[in-house]
UniProtKB/TrEMBL annotation:
Gene3D superfamilies: P-loop containing nucleotide triphosphate hydrolases (3.40.50.300). It holds the Pfam family ABC_tran. The keyword Nucleotide-binding applies. Residues 1-24 are annotated as: Disordered. This is ABC transporter ATP-binding protein. It comes from Streptomyces bullii. InterPro entries: AAA+_ATPase, ABC_transporter-like_ATP-bd, ABC_transporter-like_CS, P-loop_NTPase. It comes from the Bacteria.
């Protein structure tokens, strides 16, 4: 078991070419009448866990949807693993777990994975490879003993892990996980975070994990702190705490919010 008391484990090294997993430039998204993301500039390094944190409604899911290529009205630049977001070549290289469970309740865990594996890697000649990928993904999320249980009979945490197993099919280099621990008890949350660190360490995968629970920030290698469609900070948890003279990332976040509000007020009054 990993111990996070002294911070998360050291991240895997960057690939030799140094290309980040995600690079955004002046990224803007409009949804309905609202500009939900406002000219974001950031990079997400490879082989690390980056936490996307911010209050409900700040734009985390919208940003994730843009990254996986399912969001309309995206302008600016957004490159994922060296290709424009949504490029067909990224289909098997990016895994995405939405907030809503993405498994069918009336199928077993294995049947769910068999189905998604057949979509990703179709054809009779790929049958053996698909079987291996499914067996490995089930083992990775520690559901081997529940492989033949109906997804509808799993607990909330087990269902989250089944959704994660689907995203692990095809050995993605980037995993985008939208609030994967929401509604889980502290033990299940801790176990899932251990799993994320195992995936990053053993596969060298990049994980982008959203949460609005600030204590989860301490488990990430890097953080993107969001507020009202903007990036408030992009740094390591330790650097954020040090920079703001705070004991926790939560206090650091509040400090940065106050700073941004004060800067906004100064701008208003100088007009
Ligand atoms: N279909 C839509 N049409 C118009 N506005 C939308 C739509 N979906 C979301 N929004 C708005 O976009 C903003 C960002 O939503 P988003 O779901 O990205 O936030 P979030 O940070 O993921 O929130 P949460 O943590 O509650 O999931 C919100 O203000 C929301 O009201």
């Amino acid at each position: 078991m990993m111990n996070y008391a002294s911070g998360p484990p050291r991240p895997a090294a960057e690939p030799p070419d140094g290309t980040p997993a995600i690079r955004a430039g002046n990224l803007t998204v409009v949804r309905g009448p609202r500009t939900v993301l406002r000219g974001l500039d950031f990079t997400v390094p490879r082989g690390q866990i980056t936490g996307l944190l911010g209050p409900s409604g700040c734009g985390k899911s919208t940003l994730m949807r843009a990254i996986v290529g399912t969001q309309a009205k995206v302008t600016g630049t957004l490159d994922v693993l060296g290709h424009p977001a949504g490029h067909p070549t990224l289909r098997t290289r990016v895994g995405y777990v939405t907030q809503a469970p993405s498994v069918y309740d009336d199928l077993t865990v294995r049947q769910n994975l068999d189905y998604f594996a057949a979509v990703l890697d179709p054809g009779r000649t790929a049958a053996e490879r698909r079987h291996d990928h499914v067996t490995r993904a089930i083992a990775d999320v520690d559901l081997t003993t529940h492989a033949d249980s109906l997804a509808g009979n799993l607990s909330g945490g087990q269902r989250s892990r089944a959704s994660l197993a689907v995203a692990l099919l095809g050995t993605p280099e980037l995993l985008v996980l939208d609030e994967p621990t929401v509604g889980l008890d502290p033990v299940l949350r801790r176990d899932l975070w251990h799993l994320f660190h195992d995936i990053a360490a053993s596969r060298g995968a990049t994980l982008l994990v959203s949460s609005h629970v600030m204590d989860e920030a301490e488990r990430c290698h890097r953080l993107l702190l969001m507020r009202e469609g903007e990036i408030l900070a992009d740094d390591t948890p330790e650097a954020l705490r040090t920079r703001t003279g705070s004991d926790t990332v939560e206090t650091a976040f509040l400090h940065l919010v106050d700073e941004a509000t004060a800067a906004g007020r100064r701008k208003e009054t100088s007009r």
